[in-house]
Amino acid sequence: MTIELFIGPLIGGIIGLITNGIAIRMLFRPLKAIKLLGFTLPFTPGLIPKEKNRIAKSLGNVVAGTLVNEAVVKKGLLSQEMDEKITRALNTWIEKNHDSEQTLREILFSFTGEEQGLDLLDKTTTKITSLSYERMNNLQLGNVLSEVAVVEIVSNLQGSMFAMLINDSLIHSAKVKIAEIIDHLIESRGEEILENIVNTETESLLDSKLCDLYNRYEAKLPEATQWVLSTYHQVVEKNIGTMLHALDLSQLVEDQINGFDVLEFEKNHS
After folding, report:
1. Dihedral sign from CA coordinates of 88, 90, 96, 99
2. Is 26 exposed, middle or buried (0-12, 13-18, 19+ CB in 10 A)?
3. Chain centre distance of CA 15
4. What share of the chain is helix, strand, coil (3-state, %, to 5)?
5. In sequence order, what are the residues at sequence separation of 6 or more whose Cβ sits closer than 8 angstroms to the Cβ of residue 197?
6. Measuring CA to CA, which residue among 270, 266, 267 is closest to residue 28?
7. What's the pTM value of the predicted model, to 2 decimals?
8. CB 254 within 8 A of CB 56
9. How far are the Cα atoms of 12, 37, 63, 82, 86 from residue 68, in angstroms, in the given order?
């Protein structure tokens, strides 16, 4: 009697094991359709080989559209936790290298290589020069500096024999002329002058040793850290959409799944 109690569940378990094995095998096999007298036999090929492309495309769309879309990635990259990780990494790096005799140039080239480092520096200085020149033009420096220059000139002439010659018409004419000279100088040589300044300051900075920079700017390290975080946020906000579009995560996932070996996949999940 006791044995009979176990026979039913045991037989049921064996049957279940066999049917589950058959079902799993039918998911993966056969790999290709089997034809008989011109007709394709049912359940051939197996479900996964047959629907592999559709499954890959669907998973790619789900991953790119829901799991790892722009909002999700941006939320992760701009989170407080990420800011704290960046801050810790910066502080750790500074603590480790604050007494180093290496120059900024040597450190940069150690990460990028000399050729790529020089190319990066060239692009960076060009961008800085371009932005600075654009802002300088927007400031209308001709009008601003001519106002300052005329006030200084009038102040210096007070008490002299030329003071009686000064009137509003002369002051206005002087402002206009000085503004024209400054605007012409900015237009013709402003970008060149800025480029020389940027290049000179960049070279000086790159040749500075880390230990000297640390001693010089130690008090401003918190401000520098905030600048790094602010710049990081701006870069992510501005470029994450373009980066994800260029990455084409949906196609990447689809290609990866289509590249799977069905037999190897069966082996790992059977």
Report:
1. negative
2. middle
3. 56
4. 85, 0, 15
5. none
6. 266
7. 0.63
8. yes
9. 44, 48, 6, 17, 22
- Nearby residues of 269 by Cβ (< 8 Å), 6 or more positions away: 24
Question: CA 67 to CA 72: how far, in whole Å?
Answer: 7
Non-local CB neighbours of 104 within 8 Å, separated by 6+ positions: 205, 206, 207, 208, 210, 213
Q: How many CB atoms lie within 10 A of CB 2?
A: 5
pLDDT tens across the length of the chain (270 residues): 456 655 666 676 676 666 655 555 655 666 676 676 667 656 666 666 777 788 888 888 888 888 889 999 999 999 999 999 999 999 999 999 999 999 999 999 999 999 999 999 999 999 999 999 998 888 888 888 888 887 887 787 777 666 666 777 877 888 888 889 988 888 899 999 999 999 999 999 999 999 999 999 999 999 999 999 999 999 999 999 998 888 888 888 888 877 776 666 556 655
CA-CA distances (angstroms) from residue 122 to 40, 89, 102, 203? 64, 27, 21, 11
Length of the chain: 270
Could you list the beta-strand ranges (E) of the chain: 35-36, 39-40
